[in-house]
Design goal:
The complex is a heterotrimer of chains A (163), B (291) and C (788). With 163 residues, chain A is an alpha+beta fold. Chain A contains 5 helices and 5 strands. Helix content of chain A is 35%, strand content 17%. Chain A starts with a strand and ends with a helix. Chain B has 291 residues and is of the alpha+beta class. In chain B, the strands form 4 sheets. A 5-stranded antiparallel β-sheet of chain B has the order 4-5-10-6-7. In chain B, strands 11-12-13-14 form a 4-stranded antiparallel β-sheet. In chain B, strands 1-3-2 form a 3-stranded parallel β-sheet, with helices on one face. Chain B starts with 6 loop residues before the first strand and ends in a 5-residue tail after the last helix.
Chain lengths: 163, 291, 788
């Protein structure tokens, strides 16, 4: 059955996009299926695990807890949009250097969360990082490598800022 | 875990939203931040025929501070309230409570009004609203009315809001000069719902004794609870270990807490006393004796 | 053969992972990322009763819903699939003392747990499929649920499987050594009942698959989130009455598994059958609610034991009863009843235990299936290490001293009474080092001081050994199950090396570690090595792809030896072409040259090209693709192991526990990639901490599953897991070439014991004695006596 659908226009990773979707379809599913951006992952569909985190108008949000139709007119950034022109962002570089991840399923949510965090709070202690990451679940790493990655990214970004 | 079908409405004004709520009554749920409602939709525990999305509607107020107190529009995002200079100055207890709600990504969408209207018995904002004697302003087809926090929370996820009413504003009285405050909770993890929580505001008089103490509890009943017996113990007493200890004991009297996976009723009854004691100690410590 | 010189050694370095660029940029390919033309979506209707007869199923309204293509129920499953007799594929059903029920992929006459799949809907979207689920009417006639082992053992309990007569699905004794003599010699007997609670693996990616049956050629391609592609191929083919050649299983990126994805689920069988019936690809991705209630759970067992002990703390013998709560359906092909035996067999650990005798009873209950979880025998470490502390307290001895009295010395020619050699075990050394790092005496002073301030600090320790892969005996090498590892290694005309492995990584970084080994052996840059996996059309057969902590040794070893064999072939060909002796040749940075005369050389790719495409230049025996098929039986194998120790503070008012410090001292042999090793250890430790403080798969008295969301089944976050310090002890090399040992399971095996021992130590002044593994705040206050 197709329920009535709505046309929604937004900007995704800098590009204007338009989809036609049922109102009940979550933003996470719209991103993955209608936009074909499968980097954003669905881990729980009740807002706890953070794997679905994307930026909406600059703020990290759980895309599983928004309806796609609610994002009309917004600027969305997904993990595919963090690297620029084929070059990984310093956050991604730092995660790579720090062996931050294993199976990778939680990773997009952490990349977006860390990207926004470092943009807003360039100076962080380890305790700060742990608190700020506590809304993203990882089952593989025990978190230490991810925390190290964020701290390394902070250093990289500060050094880049000084140049 | 996908939402069931519903008819989606995106009213452009608060009045249009209210008209929709009036038209569809029980068949309709308003959507604010979505951080509580969308999980219910995903689990198919909520199956409204109509969903009224408030996020497009003009007409909700923002944050206003003035001589009559602090007023926060129902659709103000929790994260915005947390960072707002007006809220930080005008209601520090609310700032602390907001920081306990979930995680930043939740607070980026969740609203102050949404949390209060959802009335989860273990949530922080309803308890804080109760502790501060907040006034909740609702608009229905007949116009606006004000309900005191003491009358607003009527049961398990139930408020005094009628199906055709929408919460518009939360009005907080002016912050008492020199008042100390604290919110203490025990949760399984940082950001989880409280197993139990105690929010306290303590005002001292010129002699250093308690002029007024207000204590509200979350997680120990089907709604937030004012620990009035505890408050009475403290009134006029020196805010030291003896009175605070006695007040904490009183807080556990007459409550019938739930038992669940996270804690038995006995656990909640015990731990709420610890939390009340710690909240009062901290609030009293912060309170200033007026000159 | 000349050694590769000049190039930096990859093995032993924390080389950045080859997997990461795609994972960090959202370019991973997990099964839900795959979209096939004509693909449909499936959802399962699951039982809301723990135990009931199905008296009617009406799917007519569901079938009529626009967008629904098909609905299958118990009525159809009998004609679409074969009966499942779990364990048959690997002979497990022949285990003495085991009963094996027969069932179908969907519930037919009765449901046996909340979550039991009752119907499958195939529709245009998951949204529509769930709408259809809502329209299926099932009539249930409830039966009394069996919700714990005690009920299961009562003769009057309703049998979960009627054909088995009662709820005892396995009963067998295990005995090693001379238990009677041990008890005769003992100064005293210390008794304890130790219980581990049900908890579960919870990878961040749940189960899921796309079954794509192509009616033209009559083939099934099955895309899965799995640890073992070949086991899916082995079991799904006969289900659909397809020959092995007609089934291909593909697995790309897998978002974690921890043992959950080693079996073939009933959902897999039904999904494949549905695809065959509709003739189109059908995707099923379980949601978190299904995952928590229905995928797999583990660890629910109780041991009633008596320990024969001397007054100076030596453990001579153990006798007891192990009762395992198996849930309803046995896993296929690995029924949990076998894990019970592994728990007992591993229980001696690094001690000099002389006798062990245990009666095992495995019972069926109306719960989700007990499946393998990271170290399925892990309860042995919990029991042994908790028991040592209990003995120490009873005798008034220091727990470290009691351990030292019991653990073997390095180099002591010892054997576990269950038969395995304890060669190379460094348990004692790891304990001593851990206590040194913890400043044990200093802690005891701090603890006393804190006690004076009304604060409760505790220090716990636990030591374990892990068969990763274990010392190799001849019958293990021969056994298909955990025996010979295979790989194919080749070099192409670009000079790039390709490894085809039967491993199925899901976080272990095999694309990196195996490439490190090959790069060193072949003398090529790391970036020129590609590791291929996850396609049953090209990978060697394996019953378990990745699991059991064996890949470092077995896969690392097969690549090492395979690369050496390939290098020999390369140098033989190059020697012909360069008119030199192979012994004078070396490969550095992908260039084959005469040692000392780098200008006299050929690129590796050129050697490969000539061997493949200009064979006339070579003698007959050197012609052909440069490729090797290698077997490896694990060499000398060996144990991994170590000691974990932690310091906790317990808030005696709220029951909350904070871990102040966590130290790991471990021995995993040589490390291919230290960062990857440490990641595995920390991940395991986090799961162990989660098990003790947060995680419980809880059922109520009606058999309703209560922990079905992430607000109820609580995973630890970055706030609950401390920084974990990892130190290594000098390992005992056992093999001339391959001393990498596995670490995948160790962290999880030992951590619960270390944490519980610490909490017990903290609460000792309050008179609490801990005999269980799940200690949420509520329970801690009960143990202290603050609440009833």
């Amino acid at each position: 059955m197709s329920e009535p659908t709505m046309r929604v226009r937004f900007s995704v990773n800098g590009a204007a996009r338009e989809v036609t979707v049922e109102a009940r379809k979550t933003l996470a599913d719209v991103i993955r299926e209608d936009l074909g951006l499968t980097g954003t992952h669905v881990g729980c569909e009740h807002g706890v695990c953070g794997a679905c985190t994307v930026l909406v108008d600059g703020d990290p949000v759980r895309s599983c807890l928004m309806l796609g139709v609610q994002a009309g007119g917004s600027d969305i950034v997904t993990v595919e949009g963090v690297a620029g022109d084929g070059v990984m962002h310093p956050v991604q570089q730092a995660f790579w250097d720090s062996h931050s991840f294993q199976c990778g399923f939680c990773t997009p949510g952490f990349v977006i969360t860390a990207y926004a965090l470092l943009r807003d709070k360039p100076e962080l202690t380890e305790a700060d990082v742990r608190a700020e990451l506590s809304g993203n679940l990882c089952r593989c790493t025990g978190y230490q490598s991810i925390v190290n990655g964020v701290l390394a990214a902070a250093e990289r970004l500060q050094d880049a800022g000084k140049e | 875990m996908k939402p069931p079908p519903f008819e989606y409405h995106a009213p452009e004004s608060l009045d249009e939203a209210v008209a929709l709520l009036a038209a569809h009554g029980d068949e309709c749920r308003p959507l604010a931040g979505g951080q509580s409602l969308v999980p219910l939709l995903n689990f198919r525990l909520a199956r409204p025929a109509h969903l009224v999305d408030l996020n497009w509607a003009d007409g909700f107020p923002g944050i206003e501070a003035g001589p009559s107190g602090l007023s926060i529009g129902a659709m103000v995002r929790q994260r915005r309230a947390e960072r707002s200079p007006e809220v930080q100055a005008g209601c520090p207890l609310l700032v602390d409570a907001l920081s306990l709600i979930g995680h930043p990504a939740i607070r980026n969408r969740g609203t102050v009004g949404g949390s209060i209207a959802h009335a989860d018995p273990a949530a922080e904002l309803p308890a804080v609203a109760l502790a501060l004697d907040a006034e909740l302003v609702a608009r229905g087809p007949q116009g606006e009315r004000t309900v005191g926090a003491g009358d607003f929370f009527v049961g398990h996820y139930s408020t005094a809001l009628q199906p055709d009413e929408c919460l518009v504003r939360v009005d907080l009285p002016p912050w008492p000069p020199g008042a100390g405050w604290s919110i203490q909770e025990t949760a399984r993890r940082h950001g989880d719902f409280a197993i139990a929580a105690a929010a306290a505001v303590v005002e001292l008089d010129g002699a250093g004794t308690v002029a007024r103490a207000r204590v509200a509890l979350a997680g120990v009943a089907d709604r937030p609870v004012r620990a009035t017996a505890a408050e009475e113990v403290l009134a006029g007493a020196v805010a030291g270990p003896e009175a605070i200890g006695a007040a904490a004991e009183q807080a556990a009297v007459g409550i019938d807490p739930p038992s669940d996976l996270h804690g038995s009723a006995a656990y909640r009854r015990h731990v709420v006393q610890v939390l009340v004691r710690r909240a009062l100690e901290s609030a009293a410590h912060r309170a200033e004796v007026p000159a | 053969m000349a050694q590769a010189t000049g190039a930096a050694r990859q093995v032993g370095a924390s080389v950045r992972r080859a997997e990461d660029p795609r994972i960090l940029t959202g370019a991973g390919r997990y099964v839900d990322d795959i979209v096939l033309p004509g693909m449909l979506h499936a959802a399962f209707l699951r039982s809301t009763y723990a135990h009931a007869r199905i008296t009617g199923v009406d799917a007519s309204a569901a079938r009529a819903l626009p967008g629904v293509v098909a609905v299958y129920t118990g009525d159809e499953v009998r004609s679409m699939t074969q009966p499942i007799v779990p364990g048959t594929a690997v002979g497990m059903h022949l285990m003495p003392g085991l009963k094996t029920p027969t069932f179908f992929a969907l519930a037919t006459d009765k449901v046996r747990f909340v979550g039991d799949p009752v119907a499958l809907v195939v529709a245009e979207s998951r949204y529509v499929a769930e709408d259809a689920i809502d329209l299926i009417d099932v009539e249930y006639d409830p039966l009394p649920p069996v919700v714990d082992a005690q009920q299961a053992l009562e003769g009057s309990s309703a049998p979960v499987f009627d054909e088995l007569g009662d709820n005892v699905i396995a009963r067998y004794p295990i005995a090693f050594g001379d238990t009677d003599a041990a008890f005769a010699e003992a100064d005293r007997v210390v008794g304890a009942t130790l219980a581990v609670h049900r908890h579960q693996m919870v990878p961040m990616e749940g189960r899921g698959a796309i079954a794509s049956y192509d009616p033209g050629p009559g083939t099934l391609t099955y895309y899965a989130s799995t640890q073992s592609p070949h086991i899916l191929k082995l079991l799904l083919g006969p289900q659909l009455q397809l020959a092995p050649e007609q089934v291909r299983v593909l697995a790309g990126d897998v978002g974690g598994a921890f043992g959950l994805k080693t079996t073939v689920g009933r959902e897999d069988v039904m999904l494949a059958a549905a695809s065959k019936a509709v003739g189109r690809p059908v995707k099923w991705i379980e949601d978190r609610s299904e995952h928590l209630s229905s995928s797999g759970q583990a660890r629910e067992e109780t041991l009633d034991i008596e320990a024969a002990v001397t007054d100076d703390g030596r453990l001579l013998g153990i006798r007891g009863r192990l009762t395992m709560d198996h849930g309803a359906y046995p896993g296929d092909p690995f029924p949990a009843s076998a894990f019970a035996g592994a728990i007992v067999s591993m229980m001696p650990g690094p001690t000099r235990l002389r006798g062990l005798s245990c009666d095992i009873t495995v019972v069926t209950t109306n719960k989700c299936s007990y499946l393998a979880y990271r170290g399925p025998w892990a309860t042995e470490t919990f029991v042994r290490e908790r028991l040592i502390d209990i003995i120490a307290r009873e005798l008034g001895l220091d727990p470290v001293a009691v351990r030292l009295a019991n653990y073997i010395e390095k180099g002591e020619p010892a054997r576990m009474i269950s038969g395995q050699s304890l060669v190379g075990v460094t348990a004692r050394e790891s304990l001593e080092r851990a206590m040194e790092l913890m400043d044990y005496e200093g802690f005891r002073r701090r603890q006393r001081q804190a006690a004076g301030e009304g604060r409760y600090l505790g220090l716990g320790m636990a030591t374990y050994i892990e068969a990763a892969p274990g010392p190799r005996s001849d019958d293990q090498r021969a056994s298909q199950l955990m025996g010979v590892e295979k790989a194919r290694i080749s070099v192409d005309d670009r000079g790039h090396v390709t490894i085809v492995t039967r491993q199925q990584p899901h976080g272990q970084g095999h694309e990196t570690t195996l490439a490190q080994v090959a790069a060193d052996e072949m003398g090529v840059p790391f970036e020129h090595v590609t590791v291929l996996y996850g396609d049953t059309d090209i990978t060697p057969f394996a019953i378990v792809g990745t699991g059991g902590s064996r890949s470092a040794t077995l896969a690392g070893g097969v690549v090492l030896h395979g690369a050496r064999a390939l290098k020999k072939k390369v140098l033989d060909v190059a020697a012909e072409l360069l008119e030199a002796s192979p012994a004078d040749l070396t490969i550095v940075d992908g260039m084959v040259s005469v040692v000392g005369t780098p200008t006299r050389g050929l690129p590796l790719g050129e050697v490969a090209r000539i061997a493949a495409h200009e064979p006339e230049r070579l003698p007959a025996e050197l012609r052909g693709d440069l490729e090797v098929e290698q077997d490896y039986d694990g060499g000398a194998g060996g144990w991994s192991g170590g000691t974990h120790s932690c310091i906790v503070e317990v808030d005696a008012e709220t029951g909350q526990v904070r871990i102040d410090r966590y130290v790991v001292v471990e021995d995993c042999g040589a490390m291919i990639n230290p960062a990857i090793v440490e990641g595995q250890v920390r991940g395991g430790v986090a799961q162990g901490i989660g098990a003790v403080l947060l995680e419980r798969s809880a059922y109520d008295d009606d058999g309703q599953y209560v922990s079905a969301t992430f607000m109820d089944y609580l995973l630890p976050t970055a706030m609950e897991i401390p920084s974990i310090e990892i130190h290594h002890v000098d390992t005992v090399p056992l093999d001339p070439d391959v001393n990498f040992r596995g670490v995948g399971e160790g962290g999880m095996i030992v951590t619960p014991a270390a944490v519980v021992n610490a909490i017990d130590d903290a609460l000792a002044p309050l008179g609490a004695t801990i005999r269980e593994q799940h200690l949420p705040p509520s329970r801690i206050l009960e143990l202290i006596g603050t609440i009833a």
